[in-house]
Target: Pirin family protein
Amino acid sequence: MSNLETTPAELTCASERETAPGLLLTPREVPLGGPRGMTVRRTLPQRTRSLIGAWCFADHYGPDDVTGTGGMRVAGHPHTGLQTVSWLFEGEVEHRDTVGTHALVRPGEVNLMTAGAGIAHSEYSTPATTVLHGAQLWVALPERHRDIAPAFEHYAPPVLDHEGARVLVFLGSLLGSTSPVRTHSPLLGAEITLRAGQELRLDVDPAFEHGVLVDTGEVRCAGVTAGPGHLAYQPPGGARLDLVAAADRGARVLLLGGEPLGERIVMWWNFIGRSHEDIAAYREQWQRERADRGGTRFGAFPDQWAATLAAPELPNARLRTRG
Model:
């Protein structure tokens, strides 16, 4: 998915040290695609927490009636230096990209797109979709891998029953289940559905930091209580992660984890780089390749693309390190 903000902030992100047992990240609402467009709830990045492992961006959206919002209608747009992780709870999205992929994003199935040196893709909810509900996540590629060749992977994880909880492990390993999807730093991604009042204790890697993004219900985790769209953060050092659903209703969450990235990254619009010069070069090349319908960095555009998204204007001032 694109970051459709017309005046995106430049963000310099780094792994932060945490001394508190946990942290509650509250989302900000970001409108996408104009007055009838979708509104997403963004928990990463923000001032108090830029990264969780290599997870650097988290949007939670829906459930949206597409007759009111128009659904997801994101024309061709670029990415660099990251992997996009698309996860749906309801609805269906059609994906096309410049490495020749044409795929559908469906509930319970992960689509992971590696941008690397550069890729462009489009995302449209299908005509059969009446409700759209899901999460769009980005993973920052470490310096040694950020210019790798672009790629696309799809995986439908098996459903696990663990003490009555429903678990789907789409990245990394948990509860004896391992995803074959390739990442370039140690990561964990899983959907977990809890019964009302359920207490679930998970053995986790103590080298990882973890975030619990709540989709539905209310969950107690890492000493904080998180409701829909909120994210509970647990720093590295713990070998166990406890999830407790509210007594009156069940809950569904996304568990995101990883080893701290240990690198500073610059995010602006849909690009990740390491400097102002990186971002300016990516923007200039995208604008040039838009005019030519493809090129050496972002690839040949699919014939189905009638239009692509123009990059916003860079700020008048030099993009600076913050935080």
Summary: Residues 25-258 form a domain with the Jelly Rolls fold (CATH 2.60.120.10). The first strand starts at residue 11 and ends at 13.
